[in-house]
Every structure is written in C-alpha cells, then in structure tokens.
Amino acid sequence: MDTVELRAAAGRLLKLHDRFAEYFGRRESREHSLQYLRGLLLADDRKSVEPMALVFGGPSEERAKIDQRVVLSWQRFLTVSPWEARDVQQEIQAVFNEEFVPTASRWSAGTVGVIDGTAFTKRGTHSVGVKRQWSGRLGKKENCQVGVFLVGTTPGGTVLLDHQLYLPKEWAEDAARRKKTRVPAEVTFQTKPQIAAELVGRCSVRFDWITADAEYGRDGDFLDALEHNRQRYLVEVPANTTVWAEKPLRATPHAMVWQVSQLAETLPATAWSQVTLREGAKGPICFEFARLRVWAVRHRHAGPPVWLLVRRTLDRFPEVKCYLSNAEPETPLEPMALVSGARWSVGDGALRGPVVDELAPPHEPGDPGAPVCHADEARPEARASRPDAGHGDAPDPLGHDASTPVRPGGHEPDRLPSGPQRSGPRVPLQVVAGQASEL
Predict the structure, then answer these.
(1) Which of 162, 141, 146, 298 is nearest to 235 (CA)?
(2) Whole-angstrom Cα distance, residue 168 to residue 165?
(3) Which end of the chain is less congested by CB atoms within 10 angstroms, N or C?
(4) Pairing of strands 431-432, 140-154
(5) Separation CA 228–CA 194 (nearest Å)
(6) What residues have CB less than 8 Å from 281, skipping those under 6 apart?
C-alpha cells in the first residue's frame, strides 16, 4: 500500500467511524472507540488492551503524554461504558444492505448468510459461558467459550452481521456466576441452533440463501424455523443422515430410508458436474457436484421434499460432503454449488483476527450479544467476557453436545434407524448431469 492508498484508507476509516460515533454517547467514549478501532487494525502483536492503549491512546489536548491512566480509561470503556451493541449491529446491517447487497448480482448465489459456531480456548473458569466443551478448531473437548455468528457474504465482501455467546445450561442456571459476570436477567439457555435461528430472524438483511455446517443442518427445529420464515437454505448434514428415496406413503417400507452417504455412492458417472467455486492462490478451486430430489426425515417422521446435494473433491480418493436444501425443484445447480463454498469466506475474512471487534466493539459487561473482548484484562468482577475471533468450527463427530440431546433409544434427532448397510442401489435413480427427476 503506497502513501496515497494509505491516506485514502485512513479517510474511509474516519468516515466509517463517524457513521457509528453517535452510538457511543459521550465524547470520551467516541474517542476511545476510534482509538480502539485503530489499534485493532494496526497493532502488530497480540491485540490486548494495555499495549494498544499505550500506543494508540493519545496524546490529546488534555493529556500531553500517554500513561497508565489511559489503560484504565480503555478498560472502563470496554467494561462499563453504557452503549447499545444492538444499535451498532443494526447500523452494520444497514451498511451491508447499502454497500454489499448491490454486488450480489455479480454471481448467481445472490446474498448468502453464513451461520458459523466458533470456540475460543480459555485458561480460567470465570469468563462468561466458559466450560469444557467441544472445540472444532482443536478437534476435541477443551475449556472454551463458544459464539454463534451470522456473516453476510456477497462478491463485494464479507461482513459480521450479528452474533451471540452460547451460554451453557449450567451457567444459565447458576445465579451466583450470572451475578458476578453481570449476565442480563433476560438471557436464558438456548441451544446453538436456537441462537442461529434467532440471529437470522432479527436480521434486517434479506438473504437469498442461508448455509451452515452439520451441527445446524442436523437440527430439525432450526430447519423448521427457516422454512416457517420462507428462508431458502443449503446446509451440510452428517453422512449418516437418513432420507426417503421415494415419496413416503402409509405403506412405504422402511427399506426406502437411506443414509445420504449411501445414496451418494449409487450416483452414476453421468450425474456429476464439475463446478469452479473460486480462484485460489494456486489456481481454480473445483469440485464435482451431483444432486437428486429426496424426502427429508424430520422429527422422526416424513418431512418435506428437498434437494440432496453431494460434493466431492477431484482427488483419487475424494472427500465427500452432503447437503440438504429446500430450494425450488427448478433451481439450477450452479448457485447451490457456490453456496456450498460460501463458508470459506468466513474463515478467510470475517472471523479472522480482530475483524469482529472492528465491526462492533464490546460494550455491556456480561452481555452474551456483544462480541469479543479484551475485558478479561479489566477487573475480574466487572468482566465482560465474550468470544475471541477465530476460524469456523466443525461439530463433535460423535454428537456429544449438550445443545443437541439424543432422543430415547440412542438415535440422534431427525434420524430413523438406518437398518442394514447397503452396498448398491435398491431403487432406480433417474439422474442426469446436475439434474434429477422425481423418484
């Protein structure tokens, strides 16, 4: 970046901050918010409060040099300064609608909302919502916080639109810890899919698609909520998810219930189409896709007709992923393929490093709706612990998650007993490249 570009970027930063300044109230808080934003963007090392305050916290007309009082004022800004994070988040959504949504016409997927759950490792036990729970980043259970994020993505860029801290049930029911960490009284226990459905429902952005990983794709209530709001989705599902290969009738035998991975193995070579999802550092990133119409299993009963989309790598021993979508039968293959890759944009941008802080700095102590925070470095009793930004998380492959209880009988939600394993097709599949007729 040359001098001219740097000055232009600085001007845009001030213009962006001016749009949000009114939400921070007093002049001192407005100054701290701009200084904090600069620190998040320009600090070379760890984005912690004290070193950023000492570098970016002044001097000003009232203060000839930076001293430890600046650090204390930053900590007060992050822990007890009264401003509404929800107002800031709504303004971010307005910016996304104005500047990013118009670019959605550059690709066939339109405006995509990405639900992403992310875990942040913690050492202690005092941060809000911290417990030993599954961390997809580490691939094991770890002492961590978990946040649920809604990210909007278009060809114009990726923006964090809303977020909420997951508060485990033992935290939600512990009055002493709630009081110590100032968790608002109206905050109750919600599963991560319930939080995700609420984020989508209250967002002012109209999405063409919602996509999420298998932790959300296997949750029937989450999918019910999206369908109730007429929201189109494409969600990843576990390989052992069961679907009906024929329209279920009263006399339809359970032999017509297939695992999606088994159905994927039956697809002929002519069913597959290669689609380029994006340009990578070493060339185009391509996958092969096939799809067919099936009937979902929802709450252990026959559900609506949906698309089963199967994606595989071009390797000799390909990695296969399966998705379900409520898209219309006439929906082309290409936008569905592009949506399946939209979560990459989250890992590449909106949840990496301090960008979460940049878009909406923390505000109220203990507020599960506020993003990240450096408040752990303030007084422990006034801690406003929120998830730190990071990469996306995969669900526990064994389903060991308190937010998704297993139903009596040992089967996970929305699954029917799969019966014996099949090595070949039992029903005729009329599939052409990228298209499938009703079975």
Answers:
(1) 298
(2) 9
(3) N
(4) unpaired
(5) 14
(6) none
pLDDT digits (tens, 9 = 90+) for 149-202: 999 999 999 999 999 999 999 999 999 999 998 898 999 999 999 999 999 999
- 14-52, pLDDT tens digit by residue? 888 899 989 888 888 888 888 888 888 877 777 788 888
185: alpha, beta or left? (left if phi > 0; alpha if psi -120 to 50): alpha
Q: CB-side exposure of 423: number of CA atoms within 13 Å? A: 0
Encoded tokens for 169 = 């049930």
pTM across the whole model: 0.76
Q: Is the dihedral of CA 273, 278, 280, 282 positive or negative?
A: positive
Task: Collect contacts of 240-243 with beta carbons under 8 A, ≥24 apart.
Answer: 240/415, 240/418, 241/217, 241/297, 241/322, 241/324, 241/414, 241/415, 242/297, 242/415, 242/416, 242/418, 243/294, 243/295, 243/296, 243/297, 243/306, 243/308, 243/324
CA pair distance 104, 107, nearest whole angstrom: 6
Q: Which candidate, 412, 418, 414, places its Cα nearest to that of 397?
A: 412
Helix (H) or strand (E) holding 257: strand 257-259
Gap between the Cα atoms of 305 and 246, Å rounded: 10
Which backbone phi and psi does 420 adopt, to 5 degrees?
-65, 150
**Max Cα–Cα distance, the chain, nearest Å:** 83
The tokens describing 146, both together, are: 């978990």
Structure tokens at 285: 């990133």
Q: Which structure tokens are listed for 345?
A: 């944009």
Query: How many Å apart are CA 370 and CA 80, to the nearest integer?
Result: 13
